[in-house]
Write a structure and sequence with these properties.
The chain is α/β, with parallel strands linked by helices and 335 residues long. It has a single domain, classed as TIM Barrel, CATH 3.20.20.210. Helix content is 39%, strand content 12%. It contains 11 helices and 10 strands. A 7-stranded parallel sheet has the order 1-5-6-7-8-9-10. It has a 3-stranded antiparallel sheet with strand order 2-3-4, with no helix packed on it. Helix 8 links the parallel strand 9 and strand 10. Helix 4 crosses helix 5. The longest helix has 25 residues.
Length: 335
């Protein structure tokens, strides 16, 4: 079973021969079963220097911090003017000019290709509107906020349409990010999420599926209350970096409904380098997330974890070896 089939079967609960594992999701490489692909955003403002992104958000990065920085301006001063926000032209062929040789190699090596296209909705909205302003908008003007969110989504609709027209069958997953969780709960109430955001996620995920791709999403924090809404909207894969905040056993309620992309807790476990504790956590994740037919994709630790989360490289090797050793699908074959 090749890499593409392994990932697809894990996502769709069709019984992979082994646990699939990712290549880097921060840069394009061929080290795992997945290959990440990125549109050309014109200027990589997040790689240390800051600057203005293509939506007009001005990013400031503290020297030596190593993170992506923070937005320091407000593009949308008045929610009534949301239609004036200029959506980047996702139909510009220059954004995709570097893709063909990557896709040719991925096809030869039978890899599962994931387009990684930045924020979906919430993050981009608060980058443009300001975090506090957006929370007030959600509470006081939910319908207008939903229209603003839908306006932002045009960027993803255009991207998906371009992929379907020019790269049909070559790309297998579409991935975005929205950090929805605090340490203890989602940032907004479940009912607010259902009213304002879920319909637009459903449209994005629906278009993703119709274009022949699985819908992937990263979200940091404890998002237990909104996960059912994301699943109902059609998300296929959810990336978790802090599974202990749920805590892990509570993820079992979603077994068979969604595939989790995870390794161990990047906040509380991995930086401590306690191999015995990490091994116990990996087993807990396998028990909670894996059905007999799929449900988990191992995150192979990369530079983002080593440089951004202070995880030692030998811990990345240890985690990968533990997932191989504990692979429930290989054990089924042996039995």
């Amino acid at each position: 079973m090749n890499s593409r089939e392994l990932v697809r079967r894990a996502i769709r609960f069709e019984g992979p021969d082994r646990l699939p594992f990712t290549g880097s999701m921060g840069e394009t490489d061929f080290s795992g079963d997945t290959v990440a692909l990125f549109p050309d955003f014109g200027y990589a403002w997040w790689l240390g220097g800051g600057g203005t992104d293509e939506w007009g958000c001005e990013w400031k990065i503290m020297p030596g911090s190593g993170d992506m920085g923070q937005v320091k301006n407000i593009v949308l001063e008045d929610i009534d003017d949301y239609a004036r926000v200029k959506v980047p032209d996702a139909s510009d062929p220059k954004r995709y000019a570097a893709w063909p040789p990557i896709l040719e190699r991925a096809a030869r090596e039978q890899k599962y290709v994931v387009v990684c296209n930045g924020p979906y909705l919430f993050e981009r909205a608060h980058f443009l509107r300001g975090f506090e302003n957006l929370l007030v908008d959600i509470a006081m003007q939910p319908e207008k906020t939903r229209r603003f969110i839908r306006h932002i989504a045009e960027y993803h609709f255009q991207t998906i349409a371009y992929i379907e027209k020019h790269f049909a069958g070559c790309i297998h997953g579409y991935r975005g990010t929205d950090d929805w969780g605090t340490q203890t709960a989602a940032i907004i109430a479940s009912g607010q999420f259902e009213k304002v955001f879920q319909p637009v996620y459903a449209e994005i995920f629906g278009r993703t599926h119709r274009a022949g791709m699985d819908a992937w999403m990263h979200s940091c924090g404890q998002i237990l209350d909104i996960l059912p809404h994301l699943i109902e909207a059609g998300v296929n894969v959810v990336n978790l970096m802090q599974p202990n905040v749920f805590p892990i056993p509570r993820l079992a309620q979603f077994k068979g409904q969604v595939c989790f992309e995870v390794v161990a807790d990047a906040q509380s476990s991995l930086p401590k380098s306690d191999e015995a504790a990490i091994a116990k956590e990996i087993q807990a994740l396998l028990d909670a997330c894996c059905s007999s037919r799929g449900g988990l994709i191992e995150v192979q630790l990369d530079r983002m974890y080593f440089e951004g989360d202070n995880v030692q490289r030998h811990i990345g090797e240890f985690c990968h070896a533990e997932y191989r050793r504990r692979d429930p699908f290989l054990q089924q074959i042996v039995k």
